[in-house]
Amino acid sequence: MNDQDMFSAPTAALSPPRLVLVLGGARSGKSTFAEKLALNSRRSVAFIATAVAGDEDMRDRIARHQATRPASWHTIEEPLYLADAVRQAAINADVLLLDCMTTWLANWLFSQQGVLDDAAISALHYDNVLSEVDALLQASSTLSVGKTLIIVTNEVGLGIVPAYALGRVYRDILGLVNQRIAVAATHVYLMVAGLGIDIKRLHEEATL
Asked: What is the CA radius of gyration of the chain?
């Protein structure tokens, strides 16, 4: 069975709830790939948007993304409370597309009191973020039969080490977030130049 068949309406309607992770670098085609997965399912779709239009550039980016999505998709704008957004989206649709964890993490960090002070960044931020991710995964695991949650995120650990403390914390926490979601996911697609590779299907447990 190929991925097209796996996400088709007749097959998906009878399947346990599924979690799909799509990750890659900037402009690797993550959002386009995730949207195509949702569209090809031929099922009802709810889009969970985490971006906040904080400046003109972000407003333009949001507008471009909105223009590419079908008008029939239900949109939920939620920058922080993802578990609640998933449960709300599941009322309206069978395929839930969350785009993206990268922006959500930035929103979450900047919502924390004192986080811009390097001295205030601590292990507590790591623990609290991962607790939020666990709540998201719990919401995903308790979705009804036939529901699919697609999560988009960035792989930010392959570049240079950020020069400032908050940047390093952001990179490190996002790496942990991605790992935690990947463990729970049915499929994990790594995007390279617009092409998606299901790395979880290729993964093998390490042995000697």
From this structure: 17
| Contact present, 152 and 99 (Cβ < 8 Å) | yes
**Closest of 95, 36, 47 to residue 71, by C-alpha:** 47
Say whether 137 sits in a helix, a strand or coil.
Answer: helix
Q: What is the mean pLDDT of each run of 10 residues along the chain (208 residues)?
A: 59 81 95 95 96 73 75 94 97 96 93 62 80 97 96 92 83 95 97 95 83
> Any catalytic annotation for residue 65?
yes
The catalytically annotated residue of 65, 74, 125, 203 is: 65
Q: Give domain status of residue 207, yes or no.
A: no
Residue 158's domain is classified under what CATH number?
Answer: 3.40.50.300
Q: Is 136 a domain residue?
A: yes
Confirm if 157 and 175 have CB atoms less than 8 A apart: yes
Residue 206 belongs to a domain: no
Using alpha carbons, select from 99, 105, 148 the residue that is nearest to residue 128. Answer: 105
Q: What are φ and ψ of residue 162, in 5° steps?
A: -55, 145
Residues 104, 109: Cα–Cα separation, whole Å: 9
208 falls within a domain: no
> What three-state secondary structure class fits 42?
coil
pTM of the model: 0.88
Q: Which two tokens stand for residue 5?
A: 């068949």
Amino acid making up residue 100: C
State how many domains the chain has: 1
